[in-house]
Amino acid sequence: xxxxxxxxxxxxxxxxxxxxxxxxxxxxxxxxxxxxxxxxxxxxxxxxxxxxxxxxxxxxxxxxxxxxxxxxxxxxxxxxxxxxxxxxxxxxxxxxxxxxxxxxxxxxxxxxxxxxxxxxxxxxxxxxxxxxxxxxxxxxxxxxxxxxxxxxxxxxxxxxxxxxxxxxxxxxxxxxxxxxxxxxxxxxxxxxxxxxxxxxxxxxxxxxxxxxxxxxxxxxxxxxxxxxxxxxxxxxxxxxxxxxxxxxxxxxxxxxxxxxxxxxxxxxxxxxxxxxxxxxxxxxxxxxxxxxxxxxxxxxxxxxxxxxxxxxxxxxxxxxxxxxxxxxxxxxxxxxxxxxxxxxxxxxxxxxxxxxxxxxxxxxxxxxxxxx
Length: 372
Ligand SMILES: Nc1ncnc2c1ncn2[C@@H]1O[C@H](COP(=O)(O)OP(=O)(O)OP(=O)(O)O)[C@@H](O)[C@H]1O
Ligand SMILES: [Mg+2]
Fold this sequence. Notes:
By secondary structure, the chain is α/β, with parallel strands linked by helices. The chain folds into two domains: about 1-115 and about 295-370, 3-Layer(aba) Sandwich (Rossmann fold); about 120-295, Glutathione S-transferase Yfyf (Class Pi), Chain A, domain 2 (Up-down Bundle). Helix content is about 40%, strand content about 20%. It has a six-stranded antiparallel sheet, covered by helices on one side. Strands 8-12-13-3-14-15 form a six-stranded mixed sheet, sandwiched between helices. A three-stranded antiparallel sheet has the order 9-10-11. The protein is globular. Adenosine-5'-triphosphate binds next to helix 1.
């Protein structure tokens, strides 16, 4: 469901934001430091409950404000409102949906599937496996209903097993019970990830081919434990070493997505621009698969569109994004980088982030359906 109204208050340097985005492409233009990334960060918070810039949400609250609130109305029949609030004093994030307090972030995430493409995109390839695991799990979460329960229970069992491993004297019965729980839910998680991967792969290949030619690029899902043995045997046989290390070394918590170019890890051989395009292909393919399997569209946040991309690849990326008929928010410091690649059939709006006194940023609509 696209966002039909957005309202932010107390978000970084931005003055109160009240806008009505179009269901298609929303372009955000403004000078360095005007607040473009902050604006996208607000939408990211609504969909994922966390920022892509900081782990500490207190930094997102405007310096002179006591709290930050973000609100979105999602178009639909009936429309659905989602919101969150974080005050400087209370560390807790308050979540709301259709006017009611909700406890689980997963409810917001489910309502607003979103993907971010920004200048840090290469980190998905370069960074630790956790980012790639999260990428897989985003896909599984949105298409398989029982994923969240399996993920939650496996995580809980792992936490208990690790705590017991670190105890001086192990309670053998409890350890066995949590191990069985971990083995059961871990296998389930793996089956879900595995099935998702089988569906994802052809969609990714098709998407990548539309962006650039890298026929040798391969993706492989690695489940996090030895391929020959089931998880129960791995946990049982690894118990002693795990106890010495103080944590569980193999299991679904070690799953990864291996991305290679021929025989080399892709990150070692691709240029920065190529890395951004590969990551873009991964993220656009997520949205495509979501749409094909559930009929729901994914929202895209594209921060600093021109970063690392030449004019031709920028054009190809925009065309692909547009063809998916998703809602997108695309930012740039350069007005000219944002205009041009869109067809006249796509709903289009442009917003200018104007910097005022004291560095405050104000979002001003520049008109709908026009880009120049
Ligand atoms: N908590 C905060 N309160 C007030 N201002 C803040 C806060 N955090 C950051 N800022 C300021 O907000 C401004 C906007 O930053 P932002 O990263 O959104 O700009 P941008 O338009 O994306 O710039 P660029 O084009 O350089 O990426 C910066 O000047 C920054 O110093
Ligand atoms: Mg920025």
